Amino acid sequence: MRTKLLAIAGATAVTLFLFPSSAQAGHSWGGYHWARTANPFTLQLGDNVSSQWDSALSGASADWSRSTVLDTRVVAGLSNPKNCRGTTGRVEVCNSTYGNTGWLGIASISITGGTHITQGTVKLNDTYFNTPQYNTAAWRNLVTCQEVGHTFGLDHQDEDFNNANLGTCMDYTNDPSTNQHPNQHDYDELASIYSHVDSTSTLGTAAAAGASVGNSPESWGSLVSGSRADRHSTYVRHFADGTTVVTHVIWA
């Protein structure tokens, strides 16, 4: 992974920077970012996936590590894939047959101090990926790349599934063939998000589990954008300890 320049909860309130469904000049997810004292920084991705997902996870890690400010490193997972609880200071990536939940994948980030990410989780739902429609390398690559991208603080470039592909995994589509990897706009946005450094760091290797959410909308908190009919949603849940968990959902 080459040398860099940059790098899917809050205090009393969370401000979401939400975009309409056309391609955007910027696609930061609410200004959320990992606190760190220098760039480039390395973010660990916990491997809690089965062998059929290994290629998608390693590919997403390699793709995102082309950023000038962010490297990712796939490490041994610290979570049970069935509940995929988060680990402070890193991202846990999991797959399982989560059931007929309606969603293909979800990315959750825990926020403190308003914008600083303290942990992330990605869940990939084999109940749908085991069906003929989604049981392809292209769909696995797109959803893994996109959900991991959310855990850096990236939003979507386009939220209309019927628009022409933008050539990025951060673009919703009905045809994943050309949307399996980040594009230059994603790397530019990461450079913008991580153009500053912080006085403290939320990165680490501690095994402590923080606030986590489950597999159903009831556990994700309040719906703040999108809908199941739109095939994408964002939820926010506030916890008593001052943590907020923000969750992006892609519906099947």
Automatic annotation (TrEMBL):
<dbReference type="GO" id="GO:0008237">
    <property type="term" value="F:metallopeptidase activity"/>
</dbReference>
<keyword id="KW-0732">Signal</keyword>
<protein>
    <recommendedName>
        <fullName>Peptidase M10 metallopeptidase domain-containing protein</fullName>
    </recommendedName>
</protein>
<dbReference type="InterPro" id="IPR024079">
    <property type="entry name" value="MetalloPept_cat_dom_sf"/>
</dbReference>
<feature type="signal peptide">
    <location>
        <begin position="1"/>
        <end position="25"/>
    </location>
</feature>
